[in-house]
Amino acid sequence: MVFDKKTLVIPDDAQWEEHNIVTSGDVIIGDRADFGLGVITEGRVFIGENARIGGNIAAKGDVHVDMWSQVEGDVKCDNDVFLADKVKIKGKLSVGKDLELSDSAEIGKFEAKGWINVKSPVSLMIYIFLYILELMRQGKSQEVEMILNELEEEDQEYIISDDFMFVPNDSKIDLQRAEIKGNARFGKNCRVLGNYYVSGSLKVAMNTKFHGSIDAGGEIDIGPTTEIEGHLTCKGLARIEDSATVRGNIKAKRIELQKSAVVEGTVTAKEGVTFKTPEAVEVETKIERFERGLDEVEAVLD
Questions:
Q1: Residues 6+ apart with CB under 8 A from 35
Q2: What is the Cα 275 distance to its own chain's centre?
Q3: pLDDT tens for residues 5-51?
Q4: Cβ contacts of residue 46 below 8 Å, gap of 6+?
Q5: Most Cβ neighbours (<10 Å): which of 54, 89, 110, 284?
Q6: 141-153 vs 121-137: helix axis angle to the nearest 10?
Q7: Which of left, alpha, beta for 155 (phi over 0: left; psi -120 to 50: alpha)?
Q8: CA-CA distance, 43 to 60, in Å (whole number)?
Q9: Cα–Cα dist 167/179, whole Å
């Protein structure tokens, strides 16, 4: 899957609990995100700038919290924790290994089994600022540009797990309502709670139980054997695949229903409703793959 910074990504087997999302891989929460739930994961947690986490965080891997972000619950980490400027943790911080934090970070109470390193990044920033001013005074504009490029790129590359969860910048997610300025992709075998409003398209993979309604500015694709306990509304195509169930109304520009799909509500489509068999869908997929040259590429790779 091509990574897109404007797409909400929920990995396979992710489970919504009453106050948490439980997953197995890395979790990345973007800048200025208002995330009203907690996170439980066997991977790492990366939180961007000026974000709010409304619940607890429990991670087997590292936890990185960027500047001005706030965690309203507890943070329990079995590995290392890194807290940037002005980070606030209102609950208890438990660190399995080392803790590195800014001297401006605020923590209710904490315990760490490893080293504790308190740094003062403000002083470092002032030093860099004065150094750049001196270079500019000497007319060394190329050196200044090189320093700025290095500062922008340093320590920003991480190898993320394949089954990662990603929340885009400026997203709002809680147990009742979620607003995404972009697309959304939900993996297979998930349990999702809440009503989702996305400006782009939304796709739900197979065998997922979605307890809530969906409103999309683009297309909606509901995978095989998936159950939707709510209404579907979109401005594009709504595709309901093999043996999927929608317990609510569907309103879209155009609707494609496989004959084994079940809709327990009204169906409204300006450009009509198409009923398809699994065999017809399989033929269309093969034709599309052939036109895109995917079969030839895969044959070469094999």
A1: 29, 51, 52, 53, 54, 167, 171, 173, 174
A2: 33
A3: 899 999 999 999 989 999 999 999 999 999 999 999 999 999 999 99
A4: 26, 27, 28, 29, 64, 158
A5: 89
A6: 160
A7: left
A8: 6
A9: 11
Return the residue matching tokens 């699994």.
278
Half-sphere exposure (CA, 13 Å, Cβ side) for 292?
9
Cβ count within 10 A of residue 58? 21
- DSSP assignment string, the chain: ----TTEEEE-TT-EE-SSEEEESS-EEE-TT-EE-SEEEESS-EEE-TT-EE-S-EEESS-EEE-TT-EESS-EEESS-EEE-TT-EEEEEEEESS-EEEETT-EEEEEEESS-EEEE-HHHHHHHHHHHHHHHHHTT-HHHHHHHHHHHHHTT------TT-EEE-TT-EE-SSEEEESSEEEE-TT-EEESEEEESS-EEE-TT-EEES-EEESS-EEE-TT-EE-S-EEESSEEEE-TT-EE-S-EEESEEEEETT-EE-S-EEETT-EEEE-HHHHHHHHHHHHHHHTHHHHHHHH-
pTM of the predicted model as reported, rounded to 2 decimal places: 0.81
**Token pair recorded at residue 210:** 């979605």
- Domains of the chain, by residue range, sit at 7-117, 121-153, 175-277
Note the pLDDT tens digit of each residue in 80-139: 999 999 999 999 999 999 999 888 899 988 888 888 877 755 444 555 566 666 667 677
